[in-house]
């Protein structure tokens, strides 16, 4: 049995791992690599032949895990893609959005070219809607904790990861030439007591673990709950200062958890009602999918639904659909909360809201997620006094704040606990992926002190298991 890491090796994005059992090749995740110093076309450079892959296992829908699947299909992959039912639905939504982003960037490049001879300059779309539809047709959905036999020698079980609706750790039991072996791929590990989502489930005993390391060396703030943090911020910005609170949030996952938290706050009377605008068509569509798979939300959300109704709807909440309505939000002069995508501010309607509010002294921009280096969100959090938005340099007068209470990633202690559920003497190896090198090293140092054998793998190197 052989393991090789083809993406998210000593970096966060582009998760892609291959497991070879004899001649049978399994790809676990196939995400987009969008590191700041990488051209998007790097995603076409597979270090293997796509047509040689027998099956893909998809842990969850986020683009850094699913976003390169249509490229794989376009370049020859012809097998099944195994995932949970919510992951199939959410991935289709995200991949179609990726096509729109690719086309917008291509059109912008076309408009900016200096002469007609530069028609093909700049990045071309990695894939089109046809390739997404070809990919979706390959989805085969499997429920949690239901063993699925891929071949006579390989059995797959999905374990709830708690990171996103449908997110799973993939546990494989393998008969490798008469020897029983097992390996778990964690995908992204969630947190306990997170709004809407179930807690991550413990992994069964395995021989090897390929674990994410995003928050290695860092722990989340634990002195305040999600609701306490939001109440404190809203009270200051919207009630005392009569200003507006803008929250950049990813449309899938983060927005639904944030809306539920706000619903609990306003329905319990913790604050006077403030207008809330969710300005993201994709968030509206994703919320419909959360309703479709409502049996997989956590007991708290299900109990709220039974007692008070839809956890994603309340009187002072408006889902903004059209671009015209979105522009009207900018003309709403009462105190309000605007939730819009994208979370790192690199596109979407959030840029319009920033353009009109970045110089507003009575505006606070609250970041609730990770911002990669080089993004507009990263520059604001860094404290840049002037930022470039929509072809203009604008001074930053708005207040910039950040909280990690809504981070959907487990922190250092969560990652360690996930590994330590395994006996250090029985676990033959831990491979760390999906993190900056410093994060991986911090996590490795902690685990090695307790006797775990840890590898921080190099990209494309083959490891015999």
Which key phrases capture this entry?
globular, 22 strands, alpha/beta, 23% strand, 30% helix
Portion in helices: 25-40%
Individual helix count: 13
Strand arrangement within the widest β-sheet reads 6-5-4-3-2-1-22
Largest sheet: 7 strands, mixed
Oligomeric state of the chains present here: single chain
How many DSSP-defined strands? 22
Strand content: 15-25%
- Low-confidence stretches are none
Measured between the Cα atoms of the first and last residue, the distance is 5 Å
Q: What radius of gyration results from the CA coordinates?
A: 22 Å
Shape: globular
Report on this model:
The protein is α/β, with parallel strands linked by helices and 465 residues long. The protein is built from 13 helices and 22 strands. The chain has a 7-stranded mixed sheet. It has a 7-stranded mixed sheet with strand order 7-8-9-10-11-20-21, covered by helices on one side. Strands 14-13-15-12-16-19 form a 6-stranded parallel sheet, sandwiched between helices. A hairpin with a 2-residue loop joins strand 7 and strand 8. The radius of gyration is 22 Å and the shape is globular. The relative contact order is 0.14. The mean pLDDT is 93.
């Amino acid at each position: 049995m052989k393991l090789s890491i083809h993406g998210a090796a000593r970096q966060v994005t582009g998760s892609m791992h291959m497991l070879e059992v004899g001649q049978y090749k399994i790809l676990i995740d196939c995400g987009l690599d969008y590191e700041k110093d990488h051209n998007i076309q790097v995603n076409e450079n597979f270090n293997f032949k796509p047509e040689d892959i027998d099956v893909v296992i998809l842990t969850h829908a986020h683009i850094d895990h699913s976003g390169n699947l249509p490229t794989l299909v376009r370049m020859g992959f012809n097998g099944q893609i195994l995932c949970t039912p919510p992951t199939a639905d959410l991935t289709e939504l995200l991949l179609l959005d990726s096509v729109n982003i690719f086309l917008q960037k291509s059109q912008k490049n076309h408009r900016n070219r200096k002469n007609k001879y530069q028609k093909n300059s700049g990045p071309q779309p990695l894939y089109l809607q046809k390739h997404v539809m070809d990919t979706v047709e390959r989805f085969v959905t499997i429920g949690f904790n239901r063993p699925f036999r891929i071949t006579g020698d390989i059995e797959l079980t999905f374990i709830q990861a708690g990171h996103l609706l449908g997110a799973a750790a993939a546990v494989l039991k393998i008969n490798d030439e008469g020897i029983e072996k097992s390996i778990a791929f964690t995908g992204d590990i969630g947190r306990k007591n997170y709004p809407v989502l179930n807690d991550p489930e413990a992994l069964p005993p395995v021989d090897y673990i390929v674990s994410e390391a995003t928050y290695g060396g860092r722990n989340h703030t634990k002195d305040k709950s999600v609701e306490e943090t939001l109440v404190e911020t809203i009270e200051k910005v919207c009630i005392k200062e009569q200003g507006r609170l803008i929250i950049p949030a990813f449309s899938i996952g983060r927005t639904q958890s944030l809306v539920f938290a706000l619903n609990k706050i306003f329905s319990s009377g913790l604050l006077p009602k403030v207008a809330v605008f969710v300005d993201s068509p994709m968030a509206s569509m994703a919320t419909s999918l959360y309703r479709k798979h409502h049996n997989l939300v956590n007991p708290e959300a299900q109990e709220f639904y039974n007692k008070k109704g839809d956890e994603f709807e309340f009187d002072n909440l408006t889902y903004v659909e059209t671009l015209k309505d979105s522009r009207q939000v900018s003309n709403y002069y009462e105190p309000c909360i605007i939730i819009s995508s994208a979370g790192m501010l690199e596109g979407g309607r959030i840029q319009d809201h920033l353009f009109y509010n970045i110089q507003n002294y009575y505006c606070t921009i609250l970041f609730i997620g990770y911002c990669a280096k080089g993004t507009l969100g990263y520059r604001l959090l860094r404290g840049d006094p002037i930022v470039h938005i929509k072809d203009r340099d604008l001074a930053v007068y708005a207040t910039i704040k950040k909280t990690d209470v809504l981070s959907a990633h487990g922190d250092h202690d969560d990652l360690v606990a996930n590994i330590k559920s395994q006996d250090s003497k029985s676990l033959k190896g831990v491979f760390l992926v999906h993190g900056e090198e410093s994060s991986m090293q911090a996590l490795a140092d902690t685990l090695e002190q307790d006797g775990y054998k840890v590898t921080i793998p190099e990209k494309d190197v083959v490891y015999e298991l």
